[in-house]
Write a structure and sequence with these properties.
It is built from 23 helices and 12 strands. The protein is an alpha/beta fold and about 475 residues long. β10, α19 and β11 form a beta-alpha-beta unit.
């Protein structure tokens, strides 16, 4: 009997599927409960496109061996091939329930979840598989490929030789770089250089092929003057907004910068208007800051719609007193509305003026001040609207994080806002604001908008196309760089 089974399996391995099917069928005619043969026949049927036949064999195994892992796994694949989501996911839950901490089954589960558009569950499953195989280099590579595929990114395994990237930034201004550095590390050897000392940055740059200078500030001004250090390297400078308004970019010689990156089209236009000769040969690109849509995942609203959020460093740039007046106008529309203000005061005057206004306007019971919060994704869970009254934003990262959660936007149409948000999310006058409040976008639509245009993976893909040479880009991407 064993020789017959081995022969049937050998035929399958050679691609002689019909002959293998006949061989397994003959074995089962005399021994109908032979698990190995049932499994082999089921797999052969599946490869032949006979999903019904495959299902029948795997179910026969499970009749006597309820927790047979390979039968469950293959049955799950049958249902996935049929696009039967309910049966596939139910079978997957049964499988992973038996082997909760088996990285192989977790990685398999990630693929199944992905096939049915359950990206968050797919992400969680492969992340757990990666955590369980932290010391296994081979499995880390395999599972990182799965994770990249889930997120629509190129497979890291396609990189034949990693380039060395150094990211330079001063302390306190490095909040944007660490998550990106972590994700880019799958494709490049990344060093984050966060220091006030020029010598620290120079030391790290010496070993780099690619240099990313975060912010167009005094550090970037100094480093771009170091021809002997940066000469021959690919150099990218990322500009946000304050550098443009405070006159910092005019002090920088951009001759050594291959690329100057902006987080919004409006910021790029402001830079172009300065007509800086040293930037004439630099490529000017827009790469939006990305949102971790798994961290800021969608939460359905309960329909009460009573909580308005304002999250930002409280400074003149956010126009917080206009925000208070805006809420006062909205409060007249709905007596149940409450305003939740989170963020540190960058000017102590606002710590006095905002509560003073709330009390004078009869809103002190309807306005809550939180100060700094450590967990914005948790804080957004019960918020229904995010109110923005900013004089200007390069992008409005906190707004987009809230939107990813399903919080409806009430965004003042600041200069450049129309390049970032759809017009139906914007207001100019208080009458516009009231109209937007009464006719808000659907929470799921809002969350899907962020996932489509501002997901972190989109940012990482754009950065890779910027940092890698054309040959490597063509190797790992299915399309040429833009």
């Amino acid at each position: 009997m064993l020789n017959a089974i081995l022969n049937a399996e050998n035929l399958a391995q050679k691609g002689k599927l019909e002959e293998s099917k006949e061989a397994f069928t003959e074995i089962l005619a005399s021994e109908p409960t032979n698990v190995r043969s049932l499994l082999g026949l089921g797999i052969v049927c599946f490869k032949l496109g006979d999903n019904d036949g495959a299902e029948a064999q795997f179910k026969k195994i499970l009749e006597t061996k309820n927790n047979h892992l390979e039968a469950l796994k293959n049955l799950c694949m049958v249902y996935a091939a049929r696009k039967d989501k309910d049966l596939a996911l139910a079978t997957l839950e049964r499988l992973t329930g038996i082997r909760k901490n088996d990285p192989e089954f977790l990685a398999f589960g990630a693929r199944i979840y992905q096939a049915f558009g359950e990206k968050q569950k797919a992400q969680e499953s492969v992340d757990k598989a990666l955590e369980l195989t932290a010391t296994n280099y081979v499995k880390q590579n395999e599972f990182n490929d799965i994770k990249a595929h889930i997120n629509g990114l190129p497979l890291p395994s396609k990189i034949k030789k990693k380039q060395n990237l150094t990211v330079c930034c001063v302390p306190g201004m490095d909040s944007f770089i660490h998550e990106n550095a972590k994700r880019l590390a799958l494709y490049m050897n990344v060093t984050t250089s966060v220091s006030t000392k020029a010598e620290d940055h120079i030391k790290n740059i010496l070993n780099a092929n690619v240099v990313w200078l975060e912010w167009g500030n005094q550090l970037t001004q100094f480093l771009l003057s170091q021809t002997n250090i940066l000469g021959g390297k690919k150099v990218a400078v990322r500009i946000h907004s304050y550098e443009l308004y405070d006159g910092l970019v005019e002090k920088i010689n951009f001759d050594l910068a291959n690329d100057i990156v902006f987080v919004s089209p409006y910021m790029r236009e402001l830079f172009k208007q300065k007509n800086l000769p040293s930037a004439a040969n630099s490529r000017l690109s827009v790469i939006h800051n990305g949102i971790d849509v798994n961290r800021f995942s969608f939460i359905p609203r309960d329909g009460d719609n009573h909580n308005v959020a304002f999250l930002a460093y409280v400074s003149y740039k956010k126009d917080p007193m206009v925000m208070m007046h805006a809420f006062s106008r909205l409060a007249k529309e709905n007596p149940a509305l409450k305003l939740h203000v989170a963020g540190m005061y960058q000017d102590p005057r606002y710590a006095i003026a905002m509560p003073h206004f709330a009390k004078k306007a009869g809103l002190d019971e309807r306005v809550k001040f939180y100060g700094h919060i450590n967990d914005p994704e948790e804080w957004f869970k019960d918020k229904d609207y995010i109110l923005c009254t900013s004089l200007n934003e390069s992008q409005g990262l906190g707004i987009l994080e809230a939107m990813s959660r399903g919080v409806r936007p009430l965004v003042y149409s600041f200069p450049g806002a129309e390049d970032i948000y759809p017009p139906q999310y914007l207001w100019t006058t208080f009458d516009d604001l009231v109209n937007l409040y009464h006719n808000p976008p659907d929470p799921k639509e809002v969350s899907d908008f962020v996932a489509k245009y501002y997901a972190k993976e989109r940012e990482i893909g754009s950065l890779l196309k910027l940092f890698l040479d054309n040959e490597q880009v063509n190797e790992i991407f299915d399309f040429a760089p833009e």
